[in-house]
Amino acid sequence: MFRIIKKIFIKYRISKHAILGRNVIVFNTTRCYNDGEKRNIIVGNHCVLGCSLYARNGGKIRIGNNTYIGPNTSIQAKESIIIDDNVIVANNVIILDNNNHPVNPKMRLIMSSCKNYMSDNLWTWENAESKPVHICENVWIGRDARILKGVTIGKGSVIALGAIVTHNVPEYSIVAGNPAKIVKSNIRN
Ligand SMILES: CC(C)(COP(=O)(O)OP(=O)(O)OC[C@H]1O[C@@H](n2cnc3c(N)ncnc32)[C@H](O)[C@@H]1OP(=O)(O)O)[C@@H](O)C(=O)NCCC(=O)NCCS
User: Fold this and answer.
1) Rounded to the nearest 10 degrees, how much is the dihedral formed by the CA atoms of 143, 34, 127, 145?
2) Residue pLDDT, tens place only, 147-172
3) pTM for this structure?
4) Closest ligand 1 atom to Cα of 160
C-alpha cells in the first residue's frame, strides 16, 4: 500500500515538471529536474521511466511512445535530447548533450570560485558547450553506456554494454568499446 502511494506521489511530483503521456509508469527511482517551462520535458504514451531527467538552461527532452528507460540512468539536456518510439535504455546509462562544465580553464576557475554553488548562475551549464542528441526508433542502449553531445544513433541499432559513443552511429549497427566502434553492420539482414 505504502509503495503504491509513494509511486502516485512520485508521478504527481514529476508531472509538475514534465508533460507525461497516457499510461506512463514511473519507478521509485524516477526524478525530474526542469528549470524551464514544463513543456521542455515531454514524455509519450506507454513509457516506463526509472531514470533521472534534467532539463537545464532551457534544454529540451522529448521521449516518444513505448520507450523504456531504466533506473540510475541520467538524461541531461541543455539544448535538446530526442528519444524516439520503442527505444530501450538500460540501467546506469548517461545521455548528455553538453559538457556540463566549460572546457576553457579560465571559465572553470570563475565557476569554481563562486561561493554558493547551489544558487549561483555560474554553476549552471550556461558556459558548457552543447550539441543536440537524437536516439532514433527501436534503438537498444546497453547498461553502463555513455552517449555524448552531438550524437545521432540510427534506427534499429544496438549500443553494447559499457560503450562510450562519441560519433554518429549508422542505422542497424552494433557499436562497442571506448570510443565506440562498429562491430556489426546491417543487423536487420
Ligand atoms: C552487443 C551485444 C548485445 C552482443 O551482440 P552480438 O550480436 O551477440 O555480438 P557478439 O557477441 O557477436 O560480439 C560482436 C563483437 O563485438 C564485441 N563486443 C560485444 N559486446 C561488447 C562490449 N560490451 N564491449 C566491447 N566489445 C564488445 C565482441 O567481442 C565481438 O568482437 P569480435 O568480432 O572481435 O569477436 C552484447 O555484447 C551487449 O552489450 N549486450 C548488452 C546487455 C545489456 O546491457 N543488458 C542490460 C539490460 S537491457
Assistant:
1) 0
2) 999 999 999 999 999 999 999 999 99
3) 0.94
4) 39
